[in-house]
Amino acid sequence: MRVAAVDLGTNTTRLLVADVDDGRVAEVHRETHITRLGEDVDVRKRLLPLPIARVRNVLTDYRRTLERLGAERTLAVATSAVRDAENGEAFLGEIEWSYGFATRLVTGDEEAQLTWRGVDPQPGTLVLDIGGGSTEVIVDDFHVSLDMGSVRYTERFVHTDPPSRSELEACGRAAREVLATHADLHAARAVGVAGTVTTLAALDLELERYDRERVHGHRLTRDGAAAQLDRLAALPLAERRAVPALDPERAPVIVAGAVILLAVLETFGLDAIDVSERDILDGIALAAVELPEPAEGEAPPGAYTCC
Fold first, then answer.
1. Can you tell me the distance from the alpha carbon of 80 to that of 18, in angstroms, rounded to the nearest whole number?
2. Residue 108 has what pLDDT?
3. Res. 301: pLDDT tops 70
4. What end-to-end distance do the CA atoms of the chain give, in Å?
5. Cα radius of gyration rounded to whole Å, the chain
6. Smaller CB count within 10 Å for the chain: N or C?
7. Average pLDDT value over all residues in the chain
8. What gap in Å lies between CA 189 and CA 273, rounded to an integer?
9. Three-class SS of 191-240
């Protein structure tokens, strides 16, 4: 079955169109846009009009793409920012009405399970997903979603340009405190997914342009991640935006994301992490197959509106 998976994340809005056969996901099209849906949600506990408009504009294009590619079912999953927002469920209702997507607001545990399902790791592997608003850690039957992410921690701790040493230390200290209650976890190896880890891998590879095939499977050492953190934290935002293989729109939050990654590696005694391009989107695609057959083939009223 050809399905479409939409990830309504705190920092990014992503699309995967894939053919799913007997639990195997074969990618047809994958697309990512940084929309910052979770902008100021950590403080205001509401999704704001401008971030909502950015997401809706992207979803308008996604709807056309998945229709052109013949997706039979679409599942849009919302995570940390929408969970935290008082108007999150109303936002999802509007998305479902406007675009005809089945929507699901997942708990932190469900988010972790979808990520695990998408990665399909070997036993004993720690799976790490650093998102914009939350970070998921999964080892076999254990899974937890932690309220720390690249956007959330940027807004909390990074207020100067470039970040000061005291801001970086405060960010790292907060991350280690969150992780401390799970420090007894043991894993033989680790796999990292999502934008923070994949971007740091691309920088570690010294790519001139982001290349998913080269990033997938790259082994990012703790020393390599630390070197990229030192490099990025020393640059003003304007210069960070110009770094090759770093999406300019990810530049504002990549430093806090790198701090979180290092805190995870240190807490769990890991010298390196293997990078995967398979992630929660693949898990959403597998869940989309299980949706009931759509009752109507046409888009509902309001489809393709942007605001």
1. 24
2. 86
3. no
4. 31
5. 18
6. C
7. 92
8. 7
9. EEECHHHHHHHHHHCCCCCCCHHHHCCCEEEHHHHHHHHHHHHCCCHHHH
